[in-house]
Amino acid sequence: MPQLPGTDAHHHTLVVLVENKAGVLARVASLFARRGFNIFSLAVAPTEDDRFSRITIVVDVASAPLEQITKQLYKLVNVVKISELDPRDSVERELMLVTLKADLTTRSQVIELVNLFEGRVVDVGHDELTVSVDGVPDRLDDVEELLRPFGIVELQRTGRVALPKLEHTALSLRSARRTA
Amino acid sequence: MKIDGGRALIKALELEGVETIFGLPGGAILPVYDPIIDSPIRHILVRHEQGAGHMAEGFAHVTGKPGVCMVTSGPAATNVVTPLCDAYMDSVPMVCITGQVPFSAIGTDAFQECDTVGITRSVTKHNELITEAQDIPLMVRQAFHLATTGRPGPVLLDVPKDIVDPKNPRSTLEWYWPTDDEVAASLPGYRPTTKGHPKMIRQAAELILRAERPVIYAGGGILKARAAEALRELAELCDIHVVTTLMARGAFPDDHHLALGMPGMHGNYTSVTSMQQSDLLIALGSRFDDRVTGKVDGFAPGAKVIHVDIDPAELGKVRRPDVPIVGDCRLVIEELITAVRDLTAGGVTFPDRSAWKQTISGWQETYPLTYEQSEPGEALKPQYVLERLRDNTPDDTIVASGVGQHQMWTSQYWRFNHPYTWVNSGGLGTMGFSVPAAIGAKVGRPDRMVWAVDGDGCFQMTAQELVTAASERIPVKIAILNNAYLGMVRQWQEMFYDERYSEVYLSPDLPDYKLWAEAMGCVGMRVESPDEVDAAIQKANEIDDRPVVIDFRTDAREKVYPMVPSGLSNDQIVTDPAHGEGGH
Predict the structure, then answer these.
(1) Three-state secondary structure readout of B139-204
(2) B442 in active site
(3) Nearest to A41 by CA among A56, A62, A20
(4) What are B379-429's pLDDT values in tens digits?
């Protein structure tokens, strides 16, 4: 299967709807530790329904078959629903904050590059800038590579969050992709 | 009605049908112990919290009801970790209540504080720290629901002292009792599948009707699902032989003509080899444990697999099934029986399996379990003791065992003709399991004779619970197969470590088991020669007012055969003791 942007054969995105209760994240994390499953990234936040939280986990399926990871997760009493998101049928976003070396000679180049990726400067120091960029994870990889030569002081990514593509959009895009 | 948390907790246990609690009080759980005085629930005061956990397990094994244990915080909670893990591995329904320091003190490293929920998270089906007194009735109901439905298992409730202490305003609640629907609605992520998928059932029935060398691989799930009768009906209807795993001994009667006995590392030759050469394995409530499969790649290479389990995660975990069926074993087997009947009524017939059956009976004749009886004056053969014990006790006697050689010999030499007569620690392999588990079993089934077959190593780990048994007048009987060694370790050192016996010798006389038993309020006996065996067993059987301990002096050189050495394929089964004899 040809690799589409944003996909990686070893990484799958699981969106796990859990009860919004104390200790649920610990249950999920300790399950991964106990069964020897690797987490690539993890993001947790409340959902539109305050009884539930959504945990977006990018799992490394080289460590265990995805099916076993999903089934073991389902055994947690507080796990309500799990969706495996195929990057082709989902919208994924990630946010990155980077503090860069940017003195007077390079500052304008950095700002230009950040603008090109629709990022924003969120903090300014004498010789440093902090910028924020969001987008699909692959795009953030590109930004990171392009910014690296300026000198990265600190970098923090959130891990990806994802939702399924809306049905009609997904269908039309799918057929468009097939004909392409 | 206003009530305090401690009273609410005990009342909730009463309403859940709890008749017995195994436990030991302490600081944090004191307020819950106070109302026990006024409750019809029987409390059995153990001498170590691990004993309470294993007693609850033994009780659950023989009754099918959840075992309940209650202990205090900190070290008491850590002492029940082993039984919790044991119950988790063997899917034993159990509810454990632990005391906890007051809610406001949590996180301060208070006296006898520990992170019980954190420590027990991976060894329980579910656990909860109850933070408000108002949650107690619902959480107790949830705990029993979770422990007993789906794949059963242990559930722990951690109860801070302030919410159960009537002197604390935080302990007051308005009493209520949630309905089944309210309990289900409060657990939105918990919906076990019990009925098999009709399409899969149909496919399974078709495979069964095509198979020429089928074997039913029955696991502990049969007993958990109370499916022994259904299993027998399926086996007889389809005329298929049945192997019963260590956890399933008793699920299919050993005296049945289709019974093959135990498979696995110490399974009998016919059981192991029939699975290896089968063309269809019908796995019912079994989980392809490494002690059954040996080297997975070499396990039953020519077999298609129908795998029935209530836990979806077991399907495909070790071996990919051709027909996976998620569901309750009893319901699925009944559905399978109907599907097979439908097909045969439609004219489908079973293939001729006479050659396969002849092969099986040929193996049974060629490779029976054997041992050589000792000469007069020599140490007892453990197998002989077991045969005599088996033949001198009622057919429905409950047998508990510890872990090691004596466990394997008991499973091999006992004839389990009834379900729920075998209590042992299969998955975790917990030495010291048998004494407390036998006590719990006897409490659950006071009408039955209960024997524990123990090793001398195991006995020393939990023997103090015989004090509990003596003081509570629970007349269990303990047969120690005393070979003065950690026998199974010794066997591996003999066979795989060039007879380098590192740290396995225990001494037959230290402790003096007879004196120790008497000191604990039991009748103690010692048997050294084969001609004394029957009389000692008969004497023990007649004692019904206190526990009995018999110290059987057995031959340390005796090894468990057959054996599939670890990491090898089941085709490499060693049946002839000479193959493993190190020479003496």
Answers:
(1) HHHHHHHHHHCCCCCEEEEEEEHHHCCCCCHHHEEECCCCCHHHHHHCCCCCCCCCCCCHHHHHHH
(2) no
(3) A56
(4) 999 999 999 999 999 999 999 999 999 999 999 999 999 999 999 999 999
Q: What is the pLDDT of residues B56-86, one digit of tens each?
A: 999 999 999 999 999 999 999 999 999 999 9
Of B539, B556, B582, B269, nearest in space to B406 by CA: B556
- Is B198-366 assigned to CATH 3.30.70.260? no
Contact, A8 vs B178, CB < 8 A?
Answer: no
In single-letter form, the type of residue at position B146 comes to: L
Q: What is the ipTM of this complex?
A: 0.89
Chain A residue at shortest CA distance from B188: A80
Q: Which helix (H) or strand (E) holds B68?
A: strand B67-71
Is residue B552 among the annotated active site residues? no
- Hey, what domains does chain A have and what are their CATH numbers? 11-85 (3.30.70.260), 91-162 (3.30.70.1150)
Assess B118–A contact: CB distance below 8 Å, yes or no: yes
Catalytic residue among B11, B16, B22, B49: B49
Asked if B311 and A19 come within 8 Å (Cβ–Cβ), the reply is no
B chain contacts of residue A26, beta-carbon cutoff 8 Å: 118, 121
Cβ–Cβ under 8 Å, residues B306 and B323: yes
Specify whether the CB–CB gap between B334 and B303 falls below 8 A: no
Of A18, A30, A68, the CB nearest to B317: A68
Q: Which amino acid is at B265?
A: M
CA distance A80 to B17: 29
Disruptive mutation site among A24, A70, A77, A82 for chain B (greatest number of B CBs within 10 Å): A77
Q: Where are the domains of chain B?
A: 2-185, 198-366, 382-561
* Selected residue of B88, B121, B145, B309 to mutate for chain A interface (largest A Cβ count, 10 A): B121
Cβ pair A19:B189 closer than 8 A: yes
Whether A77 and B312 lie within 8 Å, measured CB to CB: no
Tell me which fold the domain B2-185 belongs to. Answer: Rossmann fold (3.40.50)
Could you report the per-residue pLDDT of B262-318, keeping only the tens digit for each?
A: 999 999 999 999 999 999 999 999 999 999 999 999 999 999 999 999 999 999 999
* Interface contact A77-B188, CB threshold 8 A: no
> What confidence category does residue A61 fall into, taking pLDDT thresholds of 50, 70 and 90?
confident
B317 part of the active site: no
End-to-end CA separation in angstroms for chain A = 15
Q: Report the interhelical angle of B198-210 vs B329-345 (nearest 10°).
A: 60
Interface contact A68-B129, CB threshold 8 A: no
Flag if B313 and A72 touch (Cβ within 8 Å). Answer: yes
What are the residues whose beta carbons fall under 8 Å from the beta carbon of B130, sequence distance 6 or more? Answer: B136, B139, B157, B158, B159, B160, B163
DSSP output for B482-493: E-SB-HHHHHHH
Q: How far is CA B384 from CA B62, B320, B374, B576, in A?
A: 26, 41, 9, 18
Beta-carbon separation of A26 and B312 below 8 A: no
Q: What is the pLDDT of residue B215?
A: 98
Distance between CA atoms of residues B153 and B148, nearest Å: 7
Residues forming beta bridges with residue B422, ordered by sequence position:
B399
Q: Which residues of B touch A71 (CB under 8 A)?
A: 312-313, 315
3-state SS assignment for residue A130: strand
DSSP B241-257: EEEE-GGGTTSS-TTST
Based on the number of CB atoms within 10 Å of its own CB, is A100 exposed (0-12), middle (13-18) or buried (19 or more)?
buried
Please check whether the domain covering B382-561 is classified as CATH 3.40.50.970.
yes
Q: What DSSP character marks residue B458?
A: H
Q: What is the pTM of this model?
A: 0.93
Residue B229 appears among annotated catalytic residues? no
